[in-house]
Amino acid sequence: MATTAQTSAHATPAGQPHAAHQGDLLRIAVGVTGKLPDEQLQQAQQMGCSGVVVASPAIPFDNGWSYDDLARLRERIESFDLRWEAIQHTPLDRFDEIRLGLPGRDREIENYQNTIRNMGRAGIPILAYNWRPNRVYRTGTIAGRGGARVTAFDAELAKDLPLSHGRAYTAEEMWQTYEYFITRVIPVAEEAGVKLALHPDDPPGHDVGGVARIMSSFEGFKRASEIVDSPNWGLLFCIGCWTEMGGTDYALNGIRHFGERGKLFYVHFRDVQGTAGKFRECFPGEGILDVTAVMRALKEVRFTGAIIDDHAPHMVGDEGWAPKSRAYQTGYLMGMLRVLEDLSQ
Ligand SMILES: [Mn+2]
User: Where is the composition biased (Polar residues) (predicted)?
Assistant: First the structure.
């Protein structure tokens, strides 16, 4: 079979330059699913990505992920000449005790600490997380440009949803659980050489399902940044969420403030139509985001991490990981970056 032959020859020939080996520059990577299918890694390599962000590796999380499992996956990623840029999140059902301050929280924090240590040993530089325990995320999937399937959110439809965790959780409670968590894991992250990257609440600002959403504004992130003073604390800057919060200027302000302080660890790049109360996702350049201004701002603040596309709208024939949409969006980002680099020569 052709695919077998391609897979066996997937390594870049020795001596051939590859994006993954160009040092720590601003670069385009791509997100892959936790099982790391060959097709996704091979497509990432074909697109010329620097590396991959793994959603949540599909390996046992007993006392946290083990070094052996992580090291094995890293070898697999590197056999495709890709670097392992980051992990998007630990298993969500093992994080709720921590985020809600439930019994079992200390045990799960220990497991999280083990994970950070093992990631450091295995050379995986970034672990992302978010502070949004309920799974209310969108209120529907609708037809976008040319019938592409895109997700949408309408606060009107979400306001009467039942409590997601048995009772309401106030903003102050959520701040307390955040402080409890972050002050216990950051010292471990510093020792292990792993950066912890905080993603905004998505959708931002609406306390759907009764749990307050505190990471939904510039002020929220500023407050979070003041709890621990550490180079290992920073942001997974989701441009889509920041745009939902207040449009392009709002997102640019976030990039400048946190970028100038070295707090942008990696970036989700997506465009959106509408704002936090009612929005739909769309292809890059099709929404309210000034995509070039954002890319330029990332360069201006000397951001040197990975950018990946986010929530690919499904194109005709796309299923699951949406390979066509990934290719389109990743190519779009690469082209935009290349032009900006050439213009700034
Ligand atoms: Mn995102």
Answer: 1-10
pLDDT digits (tens, 9 = 90+) for 90-103: 999 999 999 999 99
Alpha carbon distance 218, 247 (integer Å): 12
For tokens 């990257």, the residue is 197
* Measured distance CA(235)–CA(198) in Å, rounded: 5
| Span from the CA of 130 to the centroid of ligand 1 (angstroms) | 10
Tokens, residue 36 = 């790391």
Closest Cα to residue 121, out of 221, 193, 57?
193
> What spacing in Å lies between the alpha carbon of 99 and ligand 1's midpoint?
19
**Span from the CA of 20 to the centroid of ligand 1 (angstroms):** 23
309 Cα–ligand 1 center, Å: 9
CA of 308 to the centre of ligand 1 (A): 9
Going by their DSSP bridges, the two strands 271-275 and 278-282 should be labelled as antiparallel
Cα-to-centroid distance, 236 and ligand 1 (Å): 8
Residue found under tokens 């980051």? 86
Asked if the model's pLDDT at residue 173 lies above 90, the reply is yes
Where do the domains of the chain lie, and which CATH numbers do they carry? 23-343 (3.20.20.150)
pLDDT tens string 291-331: 999 999 999 999 999 999 999 999 999 999 999 999 999 99
How is 186-213 classified by DSSP, letter by letter?
Answer: HHHHHHHT-EEEEEPPSSTT--GGGB--
pLDDT at residue number 252: 98
Centroid of ligand 1 to alpha carbon of 240 (angstroms):
6
pLDDT range class, residue 23, cuts 50, 70, 90: low
Q: Please give the structure tokens belonging to residue 78.
A: 């590197």
- For residue 230, how far is its CA from the centre of ligand 1 (angstroms)? 23
